[in-house]
């Protein structure tokens, strides 16, 4: 009997060891040898790779040099370090799709919206009226003493006249009205016209017009037209269903439909209490017609370049195995959606305690980050570690334009150069990714999303918000590939990325 037990004991031990290993999370990085595997949002293998820290690096499709600089600096250090290589996993987050529209044919550099021009009907230098009122029944009285219309210039124009609707069926003016053209978020008017019963201007197509000093409004100009009744009584407005003339797409005019919520800094209620005339400014002889004529060739060339970019990205992914392709068009405006898609990927393809988000132009002091996690006991739940901006004003124009967040300031948000969140927060974001609204930037979007959860914020100025250098920094943004190498070389030489005593 004892002999039988001795024979069976090794078998029992082997079975127990096998069961223990099967249940233990694997510390080996996931197999990323194929492009299709990187696109998967769920790992069919029950044993997910385990990392204490999973790092997601937001990267634009064409930023190969920055990705390579990171691979040759702090990522390479992690990969080769015997203690860190299984403790930290790093993935570059790349949009699966490039924008199909050439840059010259986009509304702005930050999105993938086509400049939807049509061939101008009017001849060169012909004045275009944005609205005509052939029937006085299209007009109505409003209680508002200030009406505003926002617009954006998509091709250079020149405003030639400002106009106001008559205040009666006899095409007369019964009150004093001032019309101003302003650049958004500017106090001083670009041009102004004043109307009164004794100074009406010229009646054209149901509107009283006055000429104004002519300025070229360049592509990208964002303006607002404001009609003000100086007597604080109501203005005459046009029916919101009226068709406005945008000059074949050279202007993007805001909606005047009923029920529109005014922007928090609007100078009046959305609507139209008059009009204006403009000409299309042409810098060259071919102008807008030439731009439209050359579009098919540009589109074909751009499509060819995208195919080459796709092939290069696939080869890069096969070579390095550190890229996650998410199902978004890779533009600046889509970065928040890009981040949410990575969160969905992360919870389905890796087991981790903390997630560090950074950008591909950022230096990261990985030693200091891991040391703080250990020494400060930062493996917590409902936890957000970063350098937080508070009461940050919401921009109405430019790259960081935000038109849909109603408050004048954002909730507290961590600077995007680097922050760390606990897995439970990532899980919540991933679970709600399809319902969460993407705002203009991923850092402010994260602040808005997290405001619904109320995580514990751990403030740390070591995550730098601007391109600076300090000995004790955890991250520093906005660097070139060459600068990332220089910072890392100094760090390895003398432990100071900002410079060594001997001038390294």
Automatic annotation (TrEMBL):
Origin: domain of life: Eukaryota
Gene Ontology cellular component list: endoplasmic reticulum; Golgi membrane
Known EC number: 2.4.1.-
Pathway of action: Protein modification; protein glycosylation
Compartment annotation: Endoplasmic reticulum; Golgi apparatus membrane
Enzyme superclass (EC): transferase
Pfam families: Galactosyl_T (PF01762)
Gene Ontology biological process terms, A to Z: protein O-linked glycosylation
Alphabetized Gene3D superfamilies for the sequence: 3.90.550.50
InterPro entries in alphabetical order: Glyco_trans_31 (IPR002659)
Family note: Belongs to the glycosyltransferase 31 family.
Protein name: Hexosyltransferase
Gene this protein is translated from: b3galnt2
């Amino acid at each position: 009997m004892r002999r039988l037990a001795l024979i069976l004991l090794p078998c029992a031990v082997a079975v127990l060891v096998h069961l223990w290993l099967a249940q233990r999370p694997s510390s080996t990085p996931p197999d990323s040898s194929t492009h299709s595997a990187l696109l998967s949002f769920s790992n069919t293998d029950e044993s997910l790779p385990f990392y204490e820290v999973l790092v997601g690096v937001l990267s634009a499709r064409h930023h190969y040099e920055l990705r390579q600089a990171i691979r040759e600096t702090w990522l390479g250090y992690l990969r080769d370090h015997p203690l860190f290589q299984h403790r930290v996993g790093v993935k570059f987050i790349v949009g699966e799709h490039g924008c199909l529209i050439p840059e010259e044919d986009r509304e702005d550099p930050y999105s993938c919206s086509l400049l939807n021009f049509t061939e101008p009907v009017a001849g060169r230098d012909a004045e275009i009226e944005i609205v005509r009122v052939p029937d006085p029944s299209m007009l109505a009285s409003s209680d508002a003493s200030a009406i505003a219309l926002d617009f954006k210039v998509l091709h250079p124009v020149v405003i030639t006249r400002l106009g106001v609707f008559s205040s009666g069926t006899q095409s007369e003016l019964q009150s004093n009205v001032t019309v101003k053209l302003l650049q958004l978020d500017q106090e001083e008017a670009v041009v102004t016209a004043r109307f009164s019963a004794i100074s009406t201007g010229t009646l054209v197509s149901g509107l009283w017009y006055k000429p104004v000093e002519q300025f070229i409004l360049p592509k990208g100009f964002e303006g607002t037209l404001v009609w003000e009744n100086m007597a604080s009584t109501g203005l005459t407005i046009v029916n919101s269903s009226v068709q406005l003339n945008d000059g074949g797409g050279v202007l993007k005019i805001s909606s005047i439909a009923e029920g529109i919520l005014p922007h928090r800094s609007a100078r009046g209620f959305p609507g139209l209490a008059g009009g204006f005339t403009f000409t299309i400014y042409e810098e060259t002889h071919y102008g807008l017609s030439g731009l439209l004529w050359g579009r098919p060739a540009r589109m074909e060339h751009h499509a060819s370049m995208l195919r080459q970019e796709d092939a290069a990205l696939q080869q890069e992914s096969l070579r390095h195995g550190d890229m996650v392709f998410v199902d978004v068009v890779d533009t600046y405006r889509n970065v928040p959606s890009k981040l949410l898609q990575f969160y969905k990927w992360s919870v389905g393809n890796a087991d981790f305690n903390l997630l560090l988000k950074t950008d591909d132009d950022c230096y990261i002091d990985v030693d200091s980050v891991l040391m703080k996690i250990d020494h400060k006991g930062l493996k917590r739940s409902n936890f957000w570690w970063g350098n937080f901006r508070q009461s940050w004003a919401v921009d109405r124009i430019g790259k960081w334009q935000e038109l849909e967040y109603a408050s004048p300031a954002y909730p507290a948000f961590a600077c995007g150069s680097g922050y760390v969140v606990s897995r439970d927060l990532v899980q919540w974001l991933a679970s709600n990714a399809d319902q969460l609204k993407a705002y203009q930037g991923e850092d402010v979007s994260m602040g808005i999303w997290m405001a619904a959860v109320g995580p514990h914020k751990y403030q740390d100025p070591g995550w730098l918000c601007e391109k600076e250098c300090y000995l004790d920094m955890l991250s520093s943004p906005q660097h070139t590939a060459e600068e990332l190498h220089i910072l890392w070389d100094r760090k390895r030489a003398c432990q100071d990325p900002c410079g060594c005593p001997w001038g390294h």
